[in-house]
Structure formats: structure tokens, C-alpha cells
Design brief:
Elements: E1 2-4, E2 7-11, E3 17-21, H1 24-28, H2 42-68, E4 79-80, E5 83-84, H3 85-103, H4 110-122
Antiparallel strand pairs: 1-2, 2-3, 4-5
Helix pairs in contact: 2-3
Length: 123
């Protein structure tokens, strides 16, 4: 696990990279997301995949710069809501990623499918 400037990067059991921030003002804007599966179209899936790669690239680049001491000082840092420009870019890409994912319709649960089947059998 690598930590730099409030960003925690880690890998889960499957080797998938996970990046999270510890900043309080970023947590305020996060919405509760349903754990239901979604039907993701080919186009939405490709967009989510591309955004994920971009997010991972920016996070890796920023973490590497933090570890090597190449992060600009406060004078040269472009600030956006008190964040480094790369962090702001990552948050923007994550917001678009969530927007695309949440625009996909939810897949019916097993209980929903069984209720629909039961309604069909009554007729």
C-alpha cells in the first residue's frame, strides 16, 4: 500500500488497484450508491474502462512524484478547492465514472425476477 498526500493506493485480493482519498471535503460530496448490479452497455463499459485507466495513470504518476519528492511546492502548485491539480483531475474523472455507471439501468434482482415469474404464472 502506498500513501501520499491523503491518497491511499492499494491492491485487493484479485490484484485490482484501488485508490481512495482521506480528504474530509471530498467525502461530503459522495452519494450513497446502491449495491444492485447494473446492465452496462458496451459503450458505457468501454467509457468506464478508459476512465479507470486514466484515473490509475494519474494516481500512479502522482504517487511516484510524491515518493521521489518531485511534487511542486505550494508556490508552483495549481490549487483547486485546496487540492493539487492532479488530485482535482482524478476526482473529476471519478465523478464522470460514477455518472456513467449510475446512468446504466439496474438489473433486476433474483427476488424481482421470481415475483415477475409468479405474476406471469397466475395469468
Amino acid at each position: 500500500m502506498a500513501t501520499a498526500a491523503g491518497i491511499t493506493a492499494s491492491r485487493d485480493n484479485l490484484g485490482t488497484r484501488k485508490v481512495s482519498t482521506d480528504s474530509a471535503h471530498l467525502n461530503e460530496s459522495r452519494a450513497v450508491v446502491s449495491s444492485r448490479r447494473r446492465r452496462i452497455s458496451r459503450e458505457a463499459g468501454r467509457a468506464i474502462e478508459m476512465l479507470g485507466h486514466a484515473i490509475e495513470y494519474l494516481a500512479d504518476e502522482f504517487a511516484l512524484d510524491c515518493m521521489t519528492g518531485n511534487v511542486e511546492t505550494d508556490r508552483g502548485m495549481q490549487m483547486n478547492r485546496g487540492l493539487h491539480a492532479r488530485i482535482a483531475a482524478i476526482e473529476l474523472l471519478k465523478a464522470h465514472n460514477r455518472e456513467i455507471f449510475l446512468s446504466c439501468p439496474q438489473a433486476p434482482s433474483l427476488a424481482d425476477r421470481l415475483r415477475a415469474l409468479r405474476r406471469l404464472l397466475r395469468v
